[in-house]
Amino acid sequence: MPVSSALSTALSGIRTTQEQLGVTSANIANAKSTGYSRQTSSSSPQVAGGRVYGVQASQVTREINLLVQKQWRTSQANSAYADTRVTSLSALDSYWGAPNSSSSLNSVFSAFTTSLQKLATTPSDTATQGSAVSASQTLVTRLNQLSSDVQSLRQEAETNISDAVSRVNSLLSTIADLDKQVVAVGAGGTNSTAGLQDKRDAAIDELSEYMDIHVTDQPGGAVAISLTDGTQLYDDVPVTLSFDQQGVVDASRVYSTDDTQRSLGTIRISSGSGSGVDLFKSGSIRSGKIAAYKELRDDTLVDAQAQLDTIAATLSKATSTRQASGTTATTATTAGYTMDISGLTEGNTLKVGYTNASGTTSSITFVAYNGGTAPGNGFTPEPGDTVVGIDLSSATDVGTQIANALNAATGSTDFSGGVVTSGSTSTMTLAASTVAASHGTINSVSGEISSSEQGGYQAYPLFIDGSTGKAYSGLNNGTDNITGLAGRISVNPKVVADPSLTVKYSSGTLSGDGTRPQAILDALDSRVYSYSSSIGIGSSTTPFTGTFEGLLSQVVNTQGALVEDAQNVADGQSVVTSNLKERYDNSRSVDLDTELASLIQLQTSYSANARVLSVAQELMDTLMNAFQ
N or C end of the chain: which has fewer CB within 10 A? Predict the structure, then answer.
């Protein structure tokens, strides 16, 4: 081999070794650096005319398991989703209070019923009357606070979505900048892009916490990023997301895919590919923090508010309405019932059981309303319940309206009805013909009817809707105003001003008469209601049925189970994510023993090439001396 060739080969070897030493040194120096991937640089011969004339270092590459990286990012989105839910639900659970806590809703309700029990045994004691009112106020204050806590969590979710969108936009911009640098630097063919790729990966990794993403490699070292449903987030140009955050979130604020009905924020692509697409409406974001925030704001916490509102509504209705039952009444040509309907107001219900001329038994629930649209099927939670409205503003009395509805339902003229009013008492009569022919019959008449403070009935409006000044009945001016009721419920100011109303149901009530407080206790302990499945308990075909106390226990148990289930999901997902993270990190980690061994090998190679240069120098010196 000519001396010049030996020199050239040795010099290329030294240059290659120096580059590889630089890579190894960088690995050692960054062994503990977060997000650093081990870099490698191999060598290849330089060949010309079939002869090797040197060696060259290949482009620096990273050692990383891309399949595990993809799996980890998917798992990280799921973990972020689960952890976000647990954080919010745990806060909600703490607001409810531990079962043995004096501030828990169960404990506060128990204190209220205890005060009623004392009042029922010593109704003339003014101090006991005052204690009962105070316990009532404590109960509604607790409901008010819980409602406020739920809405605070929804407000926090709304704010967090806004913050998350800002961060996602920043990350997409960072990824775009780094991606362009990777392509530009890598275009030279020899310059290392490993450091830039690590930075780009770090930004993509963080992005995967907020939403479920899919990353696709592109020519030239670039990447494209989309949501898992295919919605493009970045492909050479990043999209910009916008979130129209609303004002103060309260129970009336709802999300809807119909923008005219929506009063909460939504995420849209405001520029870039797919501009104008509503990512919430399309359901494109399925995991990550943003998906969790939306679910909490629009579903989970809405259910929690609905449960509180139902508790408040049942508390108000059970104490303010009396259960009326019909009394049999017959004439020479009819048989039926009479019933006191004094105090009937919109939202009150009357239930009539009947048999038609063919012998088929059925029932209709009649709902009082005051003009406007009549309530229909679905007003009550009972599946298959037939609901008919009775208009209190109509010139036709309630009894006649019910009889007409029964005749329409049976295709007959068997039924008749009417209302007679004497003073403050209104008596309804419903009857069926008993003439010698096939005819229908009335089997039962019952109802839940509102009572006043001193109308002569044990029920009274102890708990009212602060916005209307009336007890909750199911309808107010034609609208069911249950939403947000837990935040508005209060103790009747008349009762606060005169605690004796907790006992006196009429002007002639004796001081030692404990009938009213006992009746309120009985209503809360034994009156059974069916509850809408829209509150997240029961189903539309099998609604939850129980007393007020049963509802309260079911809601508390449901909330506890919700937190427990969310925690179990988060714990399980954490195990998966941690294992994938460990595999991901191990696939790109720096092993110091391996690097030190490589360093020794490269030093040996460097020394060998240096020796070739030294020998070549000696040969050249000898040759030059020979000509002197």
Answer: C
Sequence-separated (6 or more) residues with CB below 8 Å from residue 163: none
pLDDT, tens digit, 9 for 90 and up, residues 526-565: 999 999 999 999 998 999 999 999 999 999 999 999 999 9
Enter the DSSP assignment of 321.
E
**Tokens coding 369:** 């309303």
- Residue 101 has a pLDDT of 86
Query: Which pLDDT belongs to residue 435?
Result: 86
Q: Give the span between the Cα atoms of 15 and 396, in whole angstroms.
A: 105
Whole-number pLDDT of residue 2:
64
- Other Cβ atoms closer than 10 A to 371: 12
Q: Which tens digits make up the pLDDT trace of 378-419?
A: 899 998 899 999 999 999 999 999 999 999 999 999 999 999
Local structure of residue 58 (DSSP, 8 states): P
Return the beta strands (E) in 535-624 as ranges: 545-546
- 481 contact partners, CB below 8 Å, separation of at least 6: 465, 467, 468, 472
Asked if residue 95 lies in contact with residue 85, where contact means CB atoms within 8 angstroms, the answer is no
Name the DSSP letter for residue 37: -
Token pair 């106390």 in the structure block, residue = 549
Q: For residue 314, which of 558, 548, 557 has the smallest C-alpha distance?
A: 548
* Contact by Cβ (8 Å): 116, 132: yes
* Structure confidence at residue 229 as a pLDDT band (50, 70, 90): very high
Q: How far apart are the first and last CA of the chain?
A: 25
